[in-house]
Amino acid sequence: MTTPNMNYANLKDSYLFFNIGQKVRRYLEQNPDKRVLRLGIGDITRPLCDVVIKALHEAVDDQASFDRFHGYMPEVGAPFLREAIRNHYADRGIELKVDEVFVSSGASDELGDILDLFDRSNSALVIEPAYPAYVDANVIAGREIIHLASSKENGFLPHPTDDAKADIIYICSPNNPTGAVFSRSQLKEWVDFANKHGSVILFDAAYEAFIEDDSLPRSVFEIEGAKTCAIEICSLSKTAGFTGTRLGYTVIPKALVRNGMSFNDMWVRNRTTKTNGVSYILQKGGAAVFTPEGQQQIKENISVYKNNAKLIMNALDEIGLWFCGGKNSPYIWLECPKGMGSWEFFDYLLNEIQVVGTPGQGFGECGEGYFRFSTFGSPEDTKEAARRLCELLR
Q1: Which secondary structure element, helix H or strand E, spans residue 331, and what is its range?
Q2: Which residues, at least 6 apart from 263, have a Cβ–Cβ distance to it below 8 Å?
Q3: pLDDT value at 13 more than 90
Q4: Which of 347, 323, 352 is nearest to 335 (CA)?
Q5: Of 10, 54, 134, 71, whose CA–CA distance to 276 is shortest?
Q6: Radius of gyration over every alpha carbon of the chain, rounded to an integer in angstroms
Q7: DSSP character for 33?
Q8: Residue 392 to residues 227, 316, 369, 372, 386: CA-CA distances in angstroms?
Q9: pLDDT at 19
Q10: Among 15, 270, 349, 384, which is least packed, fewest CB within 10 Å?
Q11: 342 CB-side CA count, 13 A
């Protein structure tokens, strides 16, 4: 008899955002006249920028031409896109080789697939509150998970300690859900810690484009020593509106070696075995993001979300609630008022003012008593949500 992967039985009953969706659906069934404002799931609302749309159309036309048609793409990514990404890093003072850059179908896919590089005996450290998929992917793999709690007291940016020793270390900066960003010195501590213990950092840089403070690192590879201990996973979803188009990239330095095995070589072998690459059309659109015009246009879209963040932060300041994030991140992490639990606060906002956020408990037990707002809504909805919050909680 076939034996299934019994680790699935160790997963929580349902995914955080599925639970939220079910609660909102039931509420709307009972209150069809109400207008719900969604500041929960981090999906974007701005369309793809003009230069990307133009490139996508050109790529579609290429596929209709015998002279310009593209079939299978290189599994690790088209040379033109890998070079564009390499040059993007170079513009920020980070020297990479083109073959250290890999094109992916998005950061979420890559965060799961990348675990193929690690033996199941390896332990994984998750700094919580954390994106739930970090934990779930390792539960499915049957891997030991070490939960490192962060808190308001350390700004949700913990330092490495001997209790935090693990083979795989997840770091997300800017963080989802807290919006906290590691400084250079704080990130250097983790890089030094990983090199000392032979660990590998999986650095989730999905929100790096939201950092406006030049003193903060947007890539782990701005930190000396990172090339011997880190893999960086990036996304065009929030940066350039590719949530529905699915495109990202991963950087694996050739200097990252353990037990005589090159992680770069291993990933080449993995990709050429398990994928046929990302479509030409999407990669052509992605390359447009890294042109001067593309960079300007995505900054204009990001500025809309940044303004949304200001609306929410101003409301929270007026109410007098503690929060972090927002300035260098599309997420705002706040302390629930009056000692409320995070799901209690969720129900309170939904029922009283029809505003939806994300309960902090869904990101780990130390998220209890906290709440996340996303700034990816429309300006109109965000302004109205901020008004309702002030009216309810002032």
Answers
A1: strand 331-335
A2: 117, 200, 231, 252, 256, 257
A3: no
A4: 323
A5: 71
A6: 21
A7: T
A8: 49, 12, 18, 17, 10
A9: 86
A10: 15
A11: 24
- The beta-carbon contacts of 1-8 under 8 Å, at least 24 apart in sequence, are 5/140, 5/142, 7/139, 7/140, 7/141, 7/142, 8/140
Residue 15 reports pLDDT greater than 80: no
d(CA 215, CA 225): 18
Cα(195)–Cα(185) distance, rounded to whole angstroms?
A: 15
Q: Are 222 and 215 in contact (CB under 8 A)?
A: no
CATH topology of domain 12-41+294-393: Aspartate Aminotransferase, domain 1 (3.90.1150)
Burial class (CB in 10 A: 0-12, 13-18, 19+), 22: exposed
Q: Which of 278, 290, 255 is nearest to 109 (CA)?
A: 278
3-state secondary structure of 261: strand
> pLDDT band for position 12 (50/70/90)?
confident
- State whether residue 267 is helix, strand or coil: helix
Collapse the DSSP code of 235 into the 3-class scheme (helix H, G, I; strand E, B; otherwise coil) and give the result.
strand
Write down the domain spans for the chain.
12-41+294-393, 50-291
Hey, what are 207's tokens? 């929100």
Handedness of CA 200, 202, 205, 207 (dihedral sign): negative
Q: What is the pTM (predicted TM-score) of this model?
A: 0.96
Q: Judge whether 51 and 294 are in contact, CB under 8 Å.
A: yes
Alpha carbon 279 to chain centroid, angstroms:
22
pLDDT single digits (tens) 69-102: 999 999 999 999 999 999 999 999 999 999 999 9
Residue type at position 372: R
Asked if domains 12-41+294-393 and 50-291 share a fold, the reply is no
Structure tokens that stand for 236 in this block? 């065009």
Give how far Cα 283 sits from Cα of 33, 56, 83, Å.
43, 9, 12
Tell me the helix, strand and coil percentages in the chain, rounded to 5: 50, 15, 40
pLDDT tier, 14 (very low <50, low <70, confident <90, very high otherwise)? low
Among all chains, which residue has been given the structure tokens 């890089």? 191
User: Which residue type occupies 193?
Assistant: F
Given a contact cutoff of 8 angstroms between Cβ atoms, the answer to whether 306 and 375 are in contact is yes
Instruction: For the domain made up of 50-291, give the CATH fold.
Output: Aspartate Aminotransferase; domain 2 (3.40.640)
